[in-house]
Amino acid sequence: MPELAFEENDFKKFSRYVYDVAGINLHDGKKELLKARLAKILREREFSSFREYYSRVINDTSGYELTLLLNALSTNLTYFFREPQHFDFLEKEVFPEMARSRQSSKDKQLRLWSAGCSSGEEAYTMAMTAFEALGPSAEHQIEILATDLSTKVLAMARTGIYKQEKTNKIPPKLGRRYFQKGRNRWKGYFRVKKEIREKVKFERLNLIEEFQFDKPFDVIFCRNVMIYFDTPTRQMLVEKLYRTLAPGGYLFIGHSESLTGLRHNFKYIQPAIFKKV
Ligand SMILES: C[S@@+](CC[C@H](N)C(=O)[O-])C[C@H]1O[C@@H](n2cnc3c(N)ncnc32)[C@H](O)[C@@H]1O
To answer: The pTM is what?
Structure first.
């Protein structure tokens, strides 16, 4: 099949559209990546040009085409216990501090949010860490919301099933405690145990749209998501995350990200950890 021409105008139209709907900043350096990912869709679905596909996407009012496009364009790299310092801090500082402060309170629930959760490893790691810190009472004390833009990764996350090679970073003791090993046709796979899966609720949420929750969160992980956004989009997101956190709550961002250059009222605690004081 001859290579399809990806004109400068095609690049401009798609990158502007993706920026408008998802905040994802596809600058000039991302042109080849965008072309490769779109070309795959064109081949699979037998569109004859990028222009024809673009027209299908923008004229579809059902949201179906947009979802497929964003599924194809999002970068979903993640793994269990990624940036382990965060989970140490959560286990040794945040959970004990919050459990103490709730002792005399009627509302003992701790609410956590994995914003931009990809295939679920981050949210499940938060749940395992809660059980390690709080013991069996975690079952009644924590609830975790995990959200992403991509319906494809959310569907994977909900199963809680991972190939063995995806579980390499899990400390063996926790692997034995919180995972079931697949047998027969599931050989080579591991499944997160039910007690952990039940603590996490997965939902689709676009972080650049307005969002509101009934109750504020005590902990938000929004890691390795803002790297795809430009400064104005990050600024808006950080303000929304601040509003969504309870006083005393913590925000965790990726170690390769920073709040430098943004206006915010967070207190810096340690690298990539901030507190709403
Ligand atoms: C690299 S993954 C990070 C996963 C996890 N937080 C971690 O640090 O391992 C980035 C995720 O952000 C999601 N994402 C990108 N833009 C988004 C948006 N506008 N709203 C919600 N999620 C978004 C992508 O779909 C992707 O799954």
So the answer is: 0.94
Q: Choose, from 10, 82, 111, 148, the residue flagged as catalytic.
A: 148
Give the structural domain span for 40. Answer: 8-73
Q: Which of 204, 196, 197 is nearest to 147 (CA)?
A: 204
Find the 117 Cα to ligand 1 centroid distance in Å.
Answer: 6
- CATH code at position 177: 3.40.50.150
Q: Kindly report, residue by residue over 43-67, the tens digit of the pLDDT.
A: 999 999 999 999 999 999 998 999 8
Of the candidates 226, 219, 221, the residue with the CA atom closest to the CA atom of residue 252: 221
Report whether 146 contacts 256 (CB < 8 A): no
Q: Select which of 37, 102, 158, 191 is catalytic.
A: 37
Neighbours of 59 (CB within 10 A): 8
134/227 same-domain check: yes
* Nearest atom within ligand 1 for CA of residue 118: 27
Q: Are 109 and 101 in contact (CB under 8 A)?
A: no
